[in-house]
């Protein structure tokens, strides 16, 4: 039973209050929507989704709950058009309604706005039968109308003339502008982006192929394919993204980069857009930079108490160079941002040189590199030194000139933080020497190097424990991480909370090589990276393999995840024996509050471990167990 017109305003407010109760909307967002509602003819539920405060699905579920109506699911939509000969597609599009079925007691009608009495009365007049409304998601209604009643409902391939016409339209800039401004295209792009944020995706990949458009989200480091928009819309979708990123929609021959700022669910989120011409169109990658999902705190990055103590001892030195190494997407930038947040204070001036600037840090002077106009790392670094900084962060050391200027800055009393792309901490030292940095300058300025990777964390709701086979325990050297006779490991299973993957979020594993007098002597002797690593381990360095295996035994991740990111770190090098004087205590791998969550560039999550999860410390193996370290890449 639909409410009387005088009760609709109260019903709308109650839907907003319900969304607040469910945590889908905050009070400030509701008040903002109510102010807009007072000056608009649109209903509050529609405004909530249009303003980006809540998703269309949340609004539909709120409407259904308050009106005691069912929500239309994907399988409720018919395979063929219902009442096609009686209803105008234009009417369906304007009112956002769709007949689902003819039943003995009336017509089942999907409605984006079940409060739309005009649409219900019109359908009753057209059919002469009673109408049973259902709450539908607007985007799904539009897609169904296009599929069942649109011009392209036929599954037959287009004719040659039609194909030529479509090709002409694709290159018609004015037509693309018009298409990109139409509601279905705007809605399709907004839904792609909003769904990516809801799924905690770090990137959206839109890839054109000859006969289809593929859309994939990178979630927890792994690509996952999702349902794409119709292939015929691909040129319009790319044009819409270009318009949002303020790019040239007429340029299809050259790559373009831009940024988008949107408010989604009441949170402002930045998106970095990269568009590249490909064989069958333009490919798009959108990097999601959701500052609210990244906690710039060491406890949230999954850094163990032992490693954190070592890292801070290097970070908090007044001058020198500290490097963070690892491949792209290993969390280096987030680790450096977290370090800057810790160092940031009113009495310190911090300047960063980045390409690109991913997150804006309050109180930090951030500079964007622009190589196209000669504004590269080296040129900016020379200028920055004249601004009297205390701390300098260089986004990446890409050439010997930048490396040498950074080292000179450290020699004159500055603290310099930067990144390198190397397999592990020790190989960063040999990389700098190979680039042409003098060994005597390196020994005078380098304080430490951090090697880092990201591994997926197991879903705490569905992870499953199992007893490791003795052969596996011996092969991987797992007994050194526990005193128990039986080694317990964990595997993913999958549930609704983790979308069936068994994983939820990512955490870091790392090693911190502190440059001691022994390491300096080896650098002056031009030692190989495996010799430097051997010396660091003998002085107490905890490798990435060790950190990962401790987290695997604790149930934070799996051994497969650890082996995947550490297996090739020392290929072709002599196996490095473990330090037999220092036992590795897995319990020390937890942060002080016992929590570890996602770190790095993929966002943040709530997978946690407690000290009860950690096994007791076991004895270290003899040097004869080197095979295990070789397999693990330590």
Uncertain runs: 154-171, 570-583, 587-634
Q: Termini, distance in Å?
A: 68 Å
Strand order of the largest sheet: 12-11-13-14-10-15-18
- Count the helices. How many? 23
Helix content class: 25-40%
Mean pLDDT: 81
Biggest β-sheet strands, sense, barrel: 7 strands, mixed
Q: Rounded to an integer, what's the Rg over CA atoms? A: 29 Å
Oligomer: single chain
The chain-level structural class is alpha/beta
Instruction: Say how many strands there are.
Output: 18
Q: How would you sum up the global shape?
A: elongated
Proportion of residues in extended strands:
15-25%
Map the helices and strands.
Blueprint: H1 5-21, H2 27-38, H3 44-50, H4 56-67, H5 89-95, E1 97-103, E2 106-111, H6 117-127, E3 131-135, H7 138-149, H8 160-170, H9 173-180, H10 183-198, E4 203-208, E5 213-219, E6 222-226, H11 234-244, E7 256-264, E8 267-278, E9 281-289, H12 305-315, E10 320-325, H13 332-343, E11 350-354, E12 365-368, H14 377-384, E13 391-394, H15 400-411, E14 415-420, H16 425-435, H17 439-445, E15 446-458, E16 464-467, H18 470-476, E17 488-491, E18 503-514, H19 517-524, H20 529-538, H21 544-553, H22 559-566, H23 626-632
Helix pairs in contact: 1-4, 3-4, 9-11, 10-11, 14-15, 15-17, 16-20, 17-19, 19-20, 21-22
